[in-house]
Amino acid sequence: MAMNRSELVAAVAEKSGNSQTAVNGVLDAVFEIFATSVANGEKITIPGWLAVERTDRAARTGRNPQTGETIQIPAGHSVKLTAGSKLKASVSNKK
């Protein structure tokens, strides 16, 4: 079972007593800050819940699976999400 964005917005609005429009605006702002900060190489940490950071990937040699030809894969960036202690504890208590 997965929760999509509209279900998340509805749940947060109900729990907080705010309108869904207000909650949706806040989520938009949070995700925008995450995107710009992580793109600039900043780490975002919400203590106990999660950490988001940009990681660097070195250039490497790969292989085309269809032809077997060797190809060069350029260096790049990725995103790393790390669960915090409160999130891990809440998951380990569920059965």
List the SSEs and their pairings.
Elements: H1 5-16, H2 20-39, E1 44-46, E2 50-57, E3 60-63, E4 70-73, E5 76-83, H3 85-92
Antiparallel strand pairs: 1-2, 2-5, 3-4
GO molecular function: DNA binding
Pfam families: Bac_DNA_binding
InterPro entries: Hist_DNA-bd, IHF-like_DNA-bd_dom_sf
β-strand percent reads: 25-35%
Largest sheet: 3 strands, antiparallel
Order of helices and strands: HHEEEEEH
| Form type | elongated
The SS-based structural class is alpha+beta
Number of DSSP helices?
3
Find the count of extended strands (DSSP E, 2+ residues): 5
Strand order of the largest sheet: 1-2-5
Radius of gyration based on Cα positions: 19 Å
> Which stretches are low in confidence, meaning pLDDT under 50 for 5 or more residues running?
none
Mean pLDDT score: 94
* Percent in helix: 40-55%
Distance between the termini: 14 Å
Structure, briefly:
42% of the residues lie in helices and 28% in strands. It contains three helices and five strands; from the N terminus they run ααβββββα.
Structure, described:
By secondary structure, the protein is of the alpha+beta class. The chain contains three helices and five strands, in the order H-H-E-E-E-E-E-H. The mean pLDDT is 94.
Descriptors:
5 strands, elongated, 95 residues, alpha+beta, two-stranded antiparallel ribbon
